[in-house]
Amino acid sequence: MAFRKENHTKETCNASLNAVKDALYVLNGKWKLPLIISLQDGPKRFNEIQKSLGEITPKILSKELKDLELNEFVIRKVFSTTPVTVTYELTEYSGSLDKVIDELRNWGLQHRERLVAHRKAGVLEEAEV
């Protein structure tokens, strides 16, 4: 998406700024999108989610799950088994993030390739000197 000067007004700029700020407010932090991606293959229990994410602490995971539940991306289901079983799964609404996640994934892959290529080129230039 290229910047288009003809569509750039103070009103459209403010509307875009507010929309991005709203999105970042809901998806802030380094764990929310990875957590959503972790749940894309189906419901998981707390410990399964924690293992799939790696370095996240139980306290942070609990907070992030509550935030995602509050924003209607995740459903917490409690089953009356012994002991009680709790699972977390994505809502239908979470699918609205699919394009965002795909674009971030694509950009991340391109960015990593760019950095690796530039580092290799830098190493080659240093070797030639």
UniProtKB/TrEMBL annotation:
Coiled coil (residue ranges): none
Source domain of life: Bacteria
Source species of the chain: Pedobacter chinensis
GO molecular function: DNA binding
Keywords: DNA-binding, Transcription, Transcription regulation
Protein name: Transcriptional regulator
A Pfam family: HxlR
Domain HTH hxlR-type residues, every copy: 13-116
Entries under PROSITE patterns matching the protein: HTH_HXLR (PS51118)
